[in-house]
Amino acid sequence: MAKHPQQTSPLQTLMQATSDFLVGFSVFLIISGLIGTVFVLQDLQENTSQDVRSDASTATPQVEIATTEPICQTLDVCLSEAIEGQTQSCSPTEICEIPPGCYLETISCFREPCDVDPQVVICPERLDDIFFFVFNDPASPGFYTDEAMTQEVSEESLEEGNRYFIKSQIEVQNVVKNSLPSDLSFSIRMKVNESLDSVKLAKYNMLTEHRDGYADILSGPFTAKRNNIVAYEVGSHDNNGNILIPETNYDNNKHLHTFSAQACANNPDLNNDNKVDLRDFSILSREFFKTGTNTPADINCDGTVNILDYSILATNFSVTK
Questions:
Q1: Domain spans in the chain, listed from the N-terminal domain onward
Q2: What is the mean pLDDT of the chain?
């Protein structure tokens, strides 16, 4: 007997359709959610890349700040011009900074009046150095052809073998360490080629009472060599080498200045007659043993007419010049 298909009621059909719709809609939501998540992640990745690129393009470049020179304060430091009756003057000195632990101190002029109150930098932790040199222009002492020092010549024009007079102004300053006896003396010395030795003594209280320093002038004659050395020194020892004024730094007590003179150009043909003969011997004999006279008879330009000049003349005897 044939079976007839089971008939479903309209209610069952509606419920089945609703169930199928809900299942399909749920699957749709899940798939849509997955697709949306993918797009969101992709957008986040692109936005992050753009932000990185934007940060890189808008990053502030490092700018090197140019260092500027410190602004220096111009102070006036008194220097003694008591030598030769000159009037006291104050010379400006630039101080860029005051070292830590140091301070400015107003001082009295060596001679009044001063235009302004001068000042010096005092460093208590460095009060172990009593002396130090300050030169107006240590590279350019004055050179003269006369003892009165009125006929000045330039250093470049000095000639080997000639006698000159040199004059240098030296300024000595100090920072007092202890209260030493005021009757102590110190020396300032100038040597030229070990032949000129000009020395002056000054009382120590000339430094302790005047922080602006002590100035003096050293001078004397010398004979120029091809290469010359001027040695300056301030001494706190006596002639026997005993320490009178103790210091911890003696390096700044000395200063050397070197210069060259033009080479000797004296000619054995002393009378300029284009030959070396007995007439030249006669001239040399009259000048024999003369020193420092700038005479052409000093053929080798050593400052003295002696047997060495005779030897040069004899070597060139009867030679036409």
A1: 71-126, 128-264, 266-321
A2: 69
